[in-house]
Amino acid sequence: MAIAPSKLGQLVEAEWHSEETLILKLREHGLVRKDTSDAELRSTFQQAKDEHAALPSGQRRFSSMNERVRVFLKPFLSAKGKAWAEPLESLKLPD
């Protein structure tokens, strides 16, 4: 079963080319708590990458990398970030 899309997952997908840019965008949008360090975010990205890479190739198509990152970010999300992480419903939210 695939992980449903979210607004946060879409942001991650758009900015995944650079961890620094992704961190900047997460902060600019107020999606992560202010007490979250860049190192914690980078570690979260790496954990998501590692778990994704460990999946058998046939299962990777059901679990996109950007939505996997969204799930791993959960402990660091602000209230707005949690709303943006809500699968499907968050797609209706304004920026």
How would you describe what is shown here?
The protein has one domain. The chain contains 6 helices and no strands. With 95 residues, the protein is mostly helical.
Compact overview of the structure:
The protein is mostly helical and about 100 residues long. The protein is built from six helices and no strands.
Labels describing this entry:
single chain, 95 residues, mainly alpha, 59% helix, globular
> What's the gyration radius in Å?
13 Å
* Regions with little confidence, pLDDT below 50 for 5+ residues: none
Strand count: 0
* Percent helix: 55-70%
Tell me the span between the first and last alpha carbons. 28 Å
The biggest beta sheet reads: none
- Cα shape: globular
What's the number of helices? Answer: 6
Quick check: average pLDDT? 89
Secondary structure layout plus pairing:
Blueprint: H1 7-15, H2 19-28, H3 38-54, H4 57-60, H5 65-73, H6 79-85
Helix pairs in contact: 1-5, 3-5
